[in-house]
Design a protein that fits this description.
Layout (H helix, E strand, L loop, with lengths): L2 H14 L2 H4 L4 E4 L4 H11 L4 E4 L7 H5 L9 E3 L5 E4 L3 H7 L4
Parallel strand pairs: 1-2
Antiparallel strand pairs: 3-4
């Protein structure tokens, strides 16, 4: 995980504090082959949210289904479990947190 990705995930983490009042949760899915390195990154950089590592990396079903070409990548899943926003950024989340 590169430093830009870590920085962005930490910014999302600030929004996670709102999850109890805004139905917001942060799920990070890492595309890493090396789970030991991924675990060290989580520990050393205090990555917020729920974290999952898919060891298929770029060959996983999520990357293929959403045509993800760069990380981090954000997907908004509404309360009805439907995806309705893709590639959203921290500013979008901050501006729209009440509607989540």
């Amino acid at each position: 995980m590169d430093s830009a990705s870590i920085k962005r995930l930490k910014e999302y983490g600030k929004l996670e504090a709102l999850k109890d009042t805004a139905h917001f949760a942060l799920l990070n899915i890492s595309f890493d082959y090396d789970t030991a390195a991924w675990r060290r990154t989580l520990t050393n950089d205090s990555i917020p949210g729920d974290n999952f590592c898919d060891t298929k990396a770029w060959n996983n079903d999520i990357a293929k289904s959403f045509t993800i070409s760069e990380l981090p990548y954000s997907i908004h899943v509404n309360p009805y479990q439907r995806t309705n926003k893709f590639g959203i950024d921290e500013q979008f989340l901050q501006n729209n947190i009440d509607s989540l």
